[in-house]
Amino acid sequence: MDYLLLFAYGAIFLALVAYVVHLRSRLTEIEKRLADLSVERDLEGDD
């Protein structure tokens, strides 16, 4: 019974770690998009 509980907690922990890694990659992607937009906006303002 203890092994099953340990397995369940381990699975939940791994799922949370995977979700955090996924969120970090999405955040990095959004930051790159915002940086690209700000560069484009700066270039348009220089005209």
TrEMBL record:
Keywords, A to Z?
Membrane, Transmembrane, Transmembrane helix
The transmembrane residues are 6-23
Tell me which InterPro entries the record gives: Put_ccm
Report the superkingdom from the record.
Answer: Archaea
Q: NCBIfam families recorded for this chain?
A: CcmD_alt_fam
Q: What is this protein called?
A: CcmD family protein
Question: What is the organism field in this record?
Answer: Natrarchaeobaculum aegyptiacum
